[in-house]
Amino acid sequence: MKFVALSLIASASAFAPSAQLSRTSALNQHIGSGGMADTRNPEASVNEDPRKSISAAPSFEEYLKQRAAQDGAPAAAAPAAAAPVAAAPVAAAPAAATGTGGDVLSTLQSLQGPGEVWGADGIAVGKEESDLRGYDNFGKFFDLIQSTGVAAELQGAGPFTIFAPTDPAIASYETMRGPVDARVVKMHIVPGLISSADVSSADLTSLGGEKLTYRYAVRKNFVNDAIIGEKTFGPYSDYPIDVACSNGVIHGVGLCFAM
After folding, report:
1. Which residues share a beta bridge with 59?
2. Is the CB of residue 214 less than 8 Å from the CB of residue 224?
3. CA 257 to chain centre
4. Among candidates 176, 127, 139, which has minimal Cα distance to 252?
5. Per-residue pLDDT for the chain (259 aa), expressed as one digit of tens each?
């Protein structure tokens, strides 16, 4: 019996996994800024093909818009290719983003914001998730500039750079933080003319004297955690940026700076 038992043990050990320890490849992976193992080289690289350049490759939202444009291109020649865009609800967006030639206040009052889709909420009311729900404009911020008295400081030649929060952004702040006062309004106004391309190197000291914080992450520019040049899903207009005015420029943002 002892011989049989030893034979069984020897046979079983032949099929047992080796006790030798091997170093897992996960231990050799780079730990990214988010604390997770990164499966690719996180260093920014530039390739003559932009699609292979980590720093230049389009974001997911940009990719969707590019794909939608490419899908519509074969339908007709170049002049006709613009027809679907003109027929879409966003046709007015480019015109609104160029400004009206007025000052920052009059332009802000009529500026069209980003187009928002219904998403999952549309199912209950018979809408497609990708159907246009409306535009997030800037009426609340315009009214706050007037009611807090900040409008008087914007009457001059400037120039002024306004990071204008959308109506939903203002509503979220009021729900979570309370009423918007003059200090919060002034946080969104920076003396000087700052284009979206110059945000990273500009002096971001607000009209109220507070220093705003710039950072670059996930291939996007942030000021006080608000994306500058944020893209929307679907074929509708994005957050307007570089809206030229007679005494400044306006960039739309989806988050209040004081959050």
Report:
1. none
2. no
3. 14
4. 139
5. 555 555 555 555 555 555 444 444 444 444 454 445 454 545 556 666 665 655 555 665 666 666 666 665 544 444 444 444 443 333 333 334 555 668 899 999 889 888 887 778 878 888 887 787 778 889 999 999 999 999 999 988 889 999 999 999 999 999 999 999 999 999 999 999 999 999 999 999 999 999 999 999 988 999 999 999 988 877 788 899 999 999 999 999 999 998 7
CA distance 257 to 164: 10
Q: Which two tokens stand for residue 46?
A: 């530039």
Tokens 């006080």, residue? Answer: 224
How far is residue 84's CA from residue 113's CA, in Å, rounded to a whole number?
A: 20
* Its pTM surpasses 0.70: no
DSSP 177-220: T----HHHHHHTEEES---GGGTTTS--B-TTSPBP-EEEETTE
